[in-house]
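Re: magnesium ion structure - here you go.
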Amino acid sequence: MVSEFDIIHRFFQREQAAPGVLLGIGDDAALLAPEAGSSLVVAVDTLVAGRHFSEQTDAFSIGHKALAVNLSDLAAMGAQPRWATLALTLPAVDEVWLSGFAEGFFALADRFNVALVGGDTTRGPLTVTVQVQGQVDVAHALRRDAAQPGQHLFVTGTPGDAAYALQQLQAGKTVEAELLARLNRPEPRVELGMALAGVANAAIDISDGLLADLQHVLDASGCGAQLNVDAIPRSPALQSLDAQAALACQLNGGDDYELCFTVDADRVEQVYRSAEDCAVQIAEIGIIEPQPGIRGVYEDGSPCALKSEGFDHFRNDSG
Ligand code: ADP
Ligand code: MG
């Protein structure tokens, strides 16, 4: 019989010392030392089996995604990731599953020097909660309330891919590996987020859909935006759809973990350089305006009606 202690020891406890960790896994709590002068940035997200991922999803992807969605929140604050805790609820002890999960989790953690410093292990329906701690100079943090009229609006990557992959899966179709990875192995824009700290203004990561998440920024900032729908980059997979179906994925699809952010006109050049340094595609998709609401336009300036269907667990029955 494998005990909770065995699981932690075999799969999650690592010997090497990590920066800023005075005491890691094994005591009642971890002792951490944030760098002097920066603020601690904390985020937590839960993935529930059957709700946030299907029972068929491989363990490596679940381990990756549970951390990735949290790192994406830190990226959207401009923060540097430092540490994480992991609360794992398991229906049974499946060692193959656990090693795949740990592999996915640590492969991503190691890329961004995130140390796992504690957690909790319980029995029950498969649920994964990760909390991350990072740091940022408080004056440089990318807050949702910092958008102002005249700022340029940007998005990273090709939004809509994750939603399209999910649609295909739910329709029983086979999904090509590259597209499936956009759903199961999202790439948190950590380096770009850090490069944007103190340079960009407002930022958010797209978890509920571009329109819904942009609206959160606009609500917090008390302004609106013009959105050029033709400027939103479209992946090869979405290009195979008809224009309306592709646009629906781009505007309302969730789970992308791309960044949407605003930049003062005189910083735009600098932002393009940062994106190039980070090898992240960015696109200018609009401009912040004083009057509330998102005003959709096509490239030629003609209006585009927008319908927001952002994901809300307590509003959508399917949530
Ligand atoms: P307690 O009962 O004091 O909360 P636990 O037995 O839950 O202690 O945990 C023992 C140690 O193992 C703690 O340091 C805790 O942070 C760590 N831990 C428990 N589960 C996990 C996990 N899934 N991943 C990483 N660390 C864990
Ligand atoms: Mg505990």
